[in-house]
Amino acid sequence: DARVTQTPRHKVTEMGQEVTMRCQPILGHNTVFWYRQTMMQGLELLAYFRNRAPLDDSGMPKDRFSAEMPDATLATLKIQPSEPRDSAVYFCASGSRGTGELFFGEGSRLTVL
Amino acid sequence: AQTVTQSQPEMSVQEAETVTLSCTYDTSENNYYLFWYKQPPSRQMILVIRQEAYKQQNATENRFSVNFQKAAKSFSLKISDSQLGDTAMYFCAFMKPQGAQKLVFGQGTRLTINP
């Protein structure tokens, strides 16, 4: 049963610490998205990859956030240093361009104290 | 830029009733996709139904159907014979088929099905 896998599911850390979230997209999918969900802002797009190349990271705070796809089976989202306002659920989603459908992982809930 | 608006923050109905969730969107595009996603307490985002703008026929998936009014830019979701397991947040979303193919989400409607 193909699915998007995200780790960790939960992370509690202290302000100033580095946080890395990982995503394994569905095999064969060539687009990968990172979304952030908060009560106040809802679902916001942070970054987008197609064929592993970053195409849009305009929604991401550049000074502390970075997103990469070192290979086709792994996407990472890193926050350094983390701040309490980064507390949110971070979703990874993957899809095949042209199908118009994205599949979401279960999300990583981040709490920064 | 596209925007998606869900005007009902919360709704509550009794089990077995029919409920309709509203969604409007703003775009200058002629061809696009519209989606309804369900997010239960487990927080998994689950695709409920999809509509392609060039198709006039409303999409249906079992108890879920949509009323797509392209001229009015309206895309409502109807849930028939509601079940306790339908309790969740429901998000309406828009996607252009070209370019980035990113989803633009509404703020969501929290639906509670009461026994």
Please provide a brief summary of the model.
Chain A is mainly β and 113 residues long.
Segments of chain B where pLDDT lies below 50 for 5+ residues?
none
- In total, the number of strands of chain B is 12
Radius of gyration of chain A: 13 Å
Could you tell me which chain pair has the largest interface and how many residues each side has? A-B, 23 and 23 residues
Q: What is the rounded distance between the termini of chain A?
A: 36 Å
Largest sheet of chain B: 6 strands, mixed
Count of separate DSSP helical elements of chain B = 0
Oligomeric state of the chains? heterodimer
Average pLDDT taken over every residue of chain A: 92
Q: Spell the H/E element sequence of chain A.
A: EEEEEEEEEEE
Helix count of chain A equals 0
Q: Could you tell me the strand content of chain B as a percent range?
A: over 45%
Q: What are the salient characteristics of this protein?
A:
heterodimer, A: 113 residues, mainly beta, 7-stranded mixed sheet, 4-stranded antiparallel sheet, B: 115 residues, 6-stranded mixed sheet
Q: In words, what does this structure look like?
A:
The complex is a heterodimer of chains A (113) and B (115). Chain A is built from no helices and eleven strands. By secondary structure, chain A is mainly beta. In chain A, the strands form two sheets. In chain A, strands 2, 4, 5, 6, 9, 10 and 11 form a seven-stranded mixed beta sheet that branches. The mean pLDDT of chain A is 92. With 115 residues, chain B is mainly β. In chain B, 0% of the residues lie in helices and 50% in strands. In chain B, the strands form three sheets. In chain B, strands 2, 5, 6, 10, 11 and 12 form a six-stranded mixed beta sheet that branches. A four-stranded antiparallel beta sheet of chain B has the order 3-9-8-7, with no helix packed on it. In chain B, strands 1-4 form a two-stranded antiparallel ribbon. Chain B is globular and about 45 Å long. The mean pLDDT of chain B is 94. At the A-B interface, β4, β5, β9 and β10 of A face β5, β6 and β11 of B.
